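User: Um, what's this?
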Amino acid sequence: MKHLLRLILVSFLGLAFLFPAHAQAEKNITVFMDGLAVPFDVNPTVMNGRTLVPFRALAENLNVAVTWDANTRTIAATDSQTSISLQIGTPIALRNGSTVSLDMSPLIINGRTLVPLRFFSEAFGCQVVWDETAHSIKITSPPRTMTTVGFYALGDQETSSWTNLFGQTFPESAKGNTDVIKSLALGWYSLDQEGNLLTTSRTGWQRPDDYQKVLEAAGKYQLKTEMVIHLTDGDNTITNLLSDEGAMQQAIEMITEEAGIYQGVNLDFEGLGWQDSAEELIHTRESFSYFANQLVDRLHAKNLKLTLTLHAPNSAYQGYDYQKLGQIADKIIVMAYDYGSKPEPASRVIEAVEAAVQAVPAEKLLLGISVPNETPDSIITKVGIAKRYGLNGIALWRLGLVSNEMWNSLRATVQAI
């Protein structure tokens, strides 16, 4: 009996030595798209040295429409440029009508279709990197056409917005980074509580003496421009303005008159609703919406657009009725930042975007990105959030602070309009 037990033990140890890699279940593969984890109800798997991924989950994260034909066991997907078709058990796929050989045939696991990762990446123009250490797949989605806005604010010699954008020392200009930024939000104006338009403000925003040269350079490189009226409510300036009908009409008149040299107006009224009571909050929201509605009527009569730059819905400033403002404004920039950590936590940014798209059509929304709070890698993730939720584009605060590495990251993920 002892001899038999000894023989069994030796045999077991021998098997363990021969198959050490299978002593534990294979570690799950984590997939990231633009730095964001892709949730799966069936995990990616490796078969015959090939990685297979759940097709529908990845496609939907790229805003690609997917259909399934149960009769032919065929999955089809299409976006504006690419159309593909795969059949379960067949090592041939169609891409825009041409046949493509697959490393492995698509298969079904627990009701989900898995396809070779290589085919997916090539079909939709993604870049894919395998991280052996982290046992993860990092996918970068292809550049997407979107609106790109750069806040043009005065800087010091080291953070010149002009040089950062045009690649030359003022007043010389070149193409520079104008392939990435196609709209300028020119932070040159403010208001007082009587409704007077100011070209200087207590917060440091001012219109430069040579502002016409900026407009000339913008025209030269086909950049759209909008005048930004920046105002904070720390001393109740906005509250007092919005409580006075005469002051509001004065502001609207002066803004409309000045706006003729731009393509639009950008209201950046910050700090509304902080520490308001429930009753005060209702009044604040209604007053700002009323002002925006009065202004947009005057602007549209002159064929000018209105952009609102707003605190995020999950910020401490709740004085903005996103649903009503979404019906008024042509675009809304969501300032989804200043959450207290760097880079900005993707979970909070996603929370802000999800709240915004519940109230405003995604095609009207731009994701505001605070450049000082991001890195070249994390800025791709923020753009990825805008892509995932189908937003109109992104807005960078601010020019003058975008590093060369960040410009390259943006070029890899955005096709600016």
The radius of gyration is 27 Å.
